Amino acid sequence: MSAPAAAGANKWVLGARLRTLPASVAPVLVGTAVAASQGHVVVWRAAAALVVALAVQVGTNYANDYSDGVRGTDDGRVGPLRLVASGLARPQQVKAAALASFGVAGVAGLALAAATSPWLLAVGAACLAAGWLYTGGPKPYGYHGWGEVSVFVFFGLVAVVGSAYVHLERITLLAVLAAVPVGLLATALLVVNNLRDIPTDLVAGKRTLAVRLGDDATRALYSALLLAPFAAVVGLAVARPWALLALAALPLTLRPLRAVSSRASGPLLIPVLVRTGQVQLVFAVLLAVGLAAG
């Protein structure tokens, strides 16, 4: 590959924001483990569910890049590179990348719906709409403080329960309970991201939950969201004792909690975002092992 081509490919990798992908992988791992605990996993369905989750996440990242870029919200931000705001890609190119990613998710979702239930089409459509409308459309809900609720619902409840459903073809209480800690950790990712962006979001008129709560309350919320999943696992262990394996991820919370409590801000919160993703992924792997072990 030529140097210009490699540089061109690299910008799209950067724009996909790979560090956010644990939020997609985690619920599929846990949902599949729930199905495994019931003795029924179909390998290709697990792979298709992972494709859906990853493609929706990447598509949402590109969609946010496009919508925030054309609105000027990303001007002066201190977070990871954005393609439109940096001028590395034209808005229409980023929009096309978002739609292509959503298209990949749609194809994999259609296969799952054909094999299980047409109701998955409605769920999939809701996921795509949530991804686009977070910062897109005339009234993006992410600009009005509803992003955290959406992340908990779609990266927690819907993703975990849906990942179990494609194997079991029914909704189980175990899947719902396992979805709660996964959704809380996904929400923590968004909260620390929005904590970092409070100064620029204020200027841009973006009224995220972090902007509405203010710096101190947002830091407290992040800490609660990072620790609450471990309490939830203790409750889950009543039904699945091996779920307590997830507690082994608790030491990984120390560094991000220390940084947030010491009032790290701006670029110093970027490592916190990375470490929160690590907590989420390790927690999900351990929880999945515990659930599958019964």
Q: Strand content of the residues, in percent?
A: under 5%
CATH class: Mainly Alpha
The outline comes out as globular
Mean pLDDT: 93
Overview of this structure, please?
The chain has helices at 3-16, 22-37, 43-71, 83-86, 91-115, 119-133, 147-168, 173-196, 198-204, 209-213, 215-236, 254-261, 270-293. With 294 residues, it is mostly helical. It has one domain (3-293): Farnesyl Diphosphate Synthase (Orthogonal Bundle).
Secondary structure elements and pairings:
Elements: H1 3-16, H2 22-37, H3 43-71, H4 83-86, H5 91-115, H6 119-133, H7 147-168, H8 173-196, H9 198-204, H10 209-213, H11 215-236, H12 254-261, H13 270-293
How do you describe this structure in short?
The protein has 13 helices and no strands.
Spell out the key features of this protein.
294 residues, mainly alpha, Farnesyl Diphosphate Synthase, disordered N terminus
